[in-house]
Amino acid sequence: MLTPSPSRATPTVKFECLNWLAADPLPRDQTQSHRLHEPQHLITTIDPMTGNDIDDVTSHPSTVDGNLTIYFETEASRNSYKLMPLNHPNLRLPYPAADSDDRGG
Fold first, then answer.
1. I need a labelling partner for 31 at 20 to 30 A (CA). Which of 5, 42, 55, 56 fits?
2. What is the pLDDT of residue 14?
3. 3-state secondary structure of 39
4. Which H or E run includes 63?
5. Residue 33: other Cβ atoms inside 10 A
6. Which stretches in the chain have pLDDT values below 70?
7. Do residues 61 and 74 make contact, with C-beta atoms less than 8 angstroms apart?
8. What CA–CA distance (Å, rounded) separates 72 from 75?
9. Radius of gyration, CA atoms only, the chain
10. Cα–Cα distance between 8 and 2 in angstroms, integer?
């Protein structure tokens, strides 16, 4: 008696079809994922003042700015980052800026 081997079995999905569509999406794929496009917290291990990558962050200074944690090589580079003036258009508006003015870009 011949039994079909796995190599001779016909695939259930023919990928050579150009207009192939999945039959049913998984429950996790039925809604848009917010974690991919809107991360809850970001961590950067590249010192923005020197451009050097920090391998071990446990002994390096850091600062938290909203949902971003920035690690620095030295306390001096951290202080120079904090003393750097902001270059943001809201600082030069002819009227006081409101939270609704920020478009997030």
1. 42
2. 64
3. coil
4. strand 62-65
5. 9
6. 1-23, 33-37, 87-92, 97, 99-105
7. yes
8. 7
9. 26
10. 11
pLDDT for 33-58, tens place per residue?
Answer: 666 667 788 899 999 999 999 999 99
The whole model's pTM is what? 0.52
Residue 81 tokens, joined: 């980052």
CA distance 89 to 105: 12
- 103: amino acid identity, one letter: R
- Which strands, in side-by-side order, build the sheet including 68-71? 42-44, 68-71, 62-65
Please tell me the predicted confidence (pLDDT) of residue 105: 45
Please, which residues have CB within 8 angstroms of residue 69's CB and are 6 or more apart in sequence?
41, 42, 43, 44, 62, 63
Which two structure tokens, joined as six digits, stand for 84? 């750097």
